[in-house]
């Protein structure tokens, strides 16, 4: 289930984001989290199963009808179980009026989700 990011989940979110190739540096991670916390056009969601948060997906609302996926990551222990695809589907269901487009780094994975 997708849940909205809250400051309470900051360390978990940073841990999951650190699996992204461009988010290895701690200063970069802090900047990314701050952007999601402070800019109303950036939305971060966590994937929760049972009581565990095991995935993360982040989007930027370019305009009223377009959302750009910038981050998607799953805890390595839970990979290859369809969780990433589930997050994309849940996001599409959450924003049915919006077109989701991936940034270049995520495009290959995103194309496998359809």
TrEMBL record:
Keywords from the UniProt entry: Acyltransferase, Transferase
Pfam annotation, one family: Acetyltransf_1
One term of GO molecular function: acyltransferase activity, transferring groups other than amino-acyl groups
Gene3D superfamilies: 3.40.630.30
Record bears the keyword Acyltransferase: yes
Source superkingdom: Bacteria
CDD domains in alphabetical order: NAT_SF (cd04301)
Record-annotated N-acetyltransferase domain positions: 3-114
InterPro entries: Acyl_CoA_acyltransferase (IPR016181), GNAT_dom (IPR000182)
Protein name: GNAT family N-acetyltransferase
Taxonomic source organism: Perspicuibacillus lycopersici
């Amino acid at each position: 289930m997708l849940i909205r990011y809250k400051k309470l989940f900051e360390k978990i979110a940073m841990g999951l984001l650190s699996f992204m190739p461009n988010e290895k540096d701690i200063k970069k991670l802090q900047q990314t989290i701050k952007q999601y916390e402070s800019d109303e056009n950036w939305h971060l969601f966590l994937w929760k199963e049972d009581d565990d948060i095991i995935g993360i997906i982040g989007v930027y609302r370019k305009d009223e009808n377009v959302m750009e996926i910038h981050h998607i990551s799953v805890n390595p222990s839970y990979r290859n179980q369809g969780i990433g695809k589930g997050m994309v589907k849940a996001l599409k269901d959450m924003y049915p009026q919006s077109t989701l487009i991936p940034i270049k780094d995520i495009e290959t994975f995103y194309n496998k989700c359809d």
